[in-house]
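Researcher: Batch entry, complex prediction.
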Amino acid sequence: MKHATGPAIHAVHPWDPGNPEKGARHQLLSDDERAKLAKIAQIVRFAKGQEIYGEGAVADAAFNIIDGVVVAYRAEHVISFLHPGDLFGLSEEGQYANATRAATPVTAYKMPLAALRRILANNADLDVNLIIKLCEELREAQRHAVLLAQKRAATRLAMFLGLQEHLQAARGESISEIHLQMDRSSIAAYLGLTTAALSRAFRALISRKIIASRNLHFVKVVDRDAFVRLADASPDGN
Amino acid sequence: MKHATGPAIHAVHPWDPGNPEKGARHQLLSDDERAKLAKIAQIVRFAKGQEIYGEGAVADAAFNIIDGVVVAYRAEHVISFLHPGDLFGLSEEGQYANATRAATPVTAYKMPLAALRRILANNADLDVNLIIKLCEELREAQRHAVLLAQKRAATRLAMFLGLQEHLQAARGESISEIHLQMDRSSIAAYLGLTTAALSRAFRALISRKIIASRNLHFVKVVDRDAFVRLADASPDGN
DNA sequence: CGCTCGCTTGAAAAATATCAAAATCTGTGG
DNA sequence: CCACAGATTTTGATATTTTTCAAGCGAGCG
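Model: Structure tokens for the complex:
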């Protein structure tokens, strides 16, 4: 079982131009590092919809997702969706900068921040890995901003689906369908739309035969050209 | 002259709850570290409007702003405004993830990435400082996303002005007026609006007597209550 | 098997995008 | 220091698009 070894942090390496397939994510930690972290970590579970911590709560632990999807939000707006291999609860000491909630049943490692920092202080490699991970989060936050700057709902949705597909590929999963594990209201909050507008955007893409969906959680890109035309943040017309 | 000492990285410390005034930014580097960086840095200047590097260009150097404002953009959308004490051009090796352009005349340190990484590898403290800086950038990118998720133009503008004011305060400058160094089209691109909509948003805030401005670059908050009511990402009504 | 919660749909109102023209600003050169 | 030309910003009138508010559906759950 891959989960038995301890926390795993996955990210696309920002240096190392010579990595196998571009965009592929790597496990950043060595077995040794994972073992060290495992010593201070405990495995915790959250039910779907359960709050993990609130905005502004005193931050005492970081989490590393083993399985499931977590939603990070702030002031009613979804900031990011976190997946297995992601780290969260970090980078704010004192208090958490945003709230988090389980979008699906979640299993995660929970690591006390104090112990974590102690390990980081004595381990330059971990430091670097943390930097890599932060860079990845930063890139993603910026992609989110570009998405949100789009003016048309259908464009935002297409970009979002493109991001999801991309993430799925980076995780090594199949791309034949895009799997949306979160509910519509979370997606709407991520896209800066009302659920009504999101629903209509889905309908627009479907009726234009750009995507198809067999249920709320699975979407398939039918017309790749049109999809890319929409999703690639075309600076021009649309 | 404070600039004679070498690169300076400013950030709000994420740990250290016990810092003097909350929100105040600190110089992260020791004199020794600055001296080390100074050895590999050269001072460069850019004219207003000049491109510093293009999106996707081969990344060979990082920059640290001494004076002026830089705009980072991607696909026609402004991702961030960078100020003195900020670092950019980092975190992408291989190629720059976004383009940058001088919004005002800019003076900066230019540091070859290769040399920079060599220094980082041998200096755990610098590592930590880099982490702190990345956390700050991440927080800011997330704030940007929250801003963009707002549906009303006036709300986005008010939040933007609030952010600018906050940054100004963190830099220790006066807050009696908000100084907008960039042009309207950059602000519009940052807010995900057209310049026309941005102009009307300004007008709306002015006619509602929430702000006043003596020219394009200086804005004053007149009705603080109304301003805060708008800018504080009110999850509720508006 | 009924019920709740979440998603979809409708119709009307509000807001922004568009496109184009007028006003202002900037900085350049006389 | 002033005048001018180009560029930026503002304003107007319309067309789109999204939000709102509310009612209908449907799927999943107890």
